[in-house]
Amino acid sequence: GNCEYCTTGRETLCRDVLNAGYTVDGAMAEEVIVDANYAVKVPENLDPAAASSITCAGVTTYKAVKVSGIEPGQWLGVFGVGGLGNLALQYAKNVMGAKVVAFDINDDKLNFAKELGADAIINSTNVDPIEEVNRLTNNKGLDATVIT
């Protein structure tokens, strides 16, 4: 959009916003009319049902990473790396160019976060997270955080 909210990154406050499934019909339809500025082609090999969740969970986590103000090369901490946290991790790495530290208490989730590209993983039940962050960042600390 072109309103003050849309042009300053606060799209959710736009008075003219049209959200499929909320203000207009068509959230899970096979076909829907959308503004070309917001259309994304889904690859042929991607199951549409699997892709549909990105419009809710994906937008939520993208917005969190975006408003964190993180910039390329800066450190972002993602606290909780389940479904939402792993999306935040991927946006931070692949869209924003950030370095990501994933925090959780579940080693399986942390190992998956590492597979997705986390620069470091911290199980806060095993190590002091503050000491570990300071070690990773040469005592600079994190530039921003996302808590999921």
Automatic annotation (TrEMBL):
Pfam families: ADH_N, ADH_zinc_N. This is Alcohol dehydrogenase. Its cofactor is Zn(2+). InterPro entries: ADH-like_C, ADH-like_N, D-isomer_DH_CS1, GroES-like_sf, NAD(P)-bd_dom_sf. The lineage of its organism: Bacteria, Bacillati, Bacillota, Bacilli, Bacillales. It is an enzyme of class 1 (oxidoreductase). GO terms for molecular function: alcohol dehydrogenase (NAD+) activity; metal ion binding. Keywords: Metal-binding, NAD, Oxidoreductase, Zinc. Its EC number is 1.1.1.1. Residues 1-44 form the Alcohol dehydrogenase-like N-terminal domain. It catalyses: a primary alcohol + NAD(+) = an aldehyde + NADH + H(+); a secondary alcohol + NAD(+) = a ketone + NADH + H(+). Belongs to the zinc-containing alcohol dehydrogenase family. Residues 83-146 form the Alcohol dehydrogenase-like C-terminal domain.
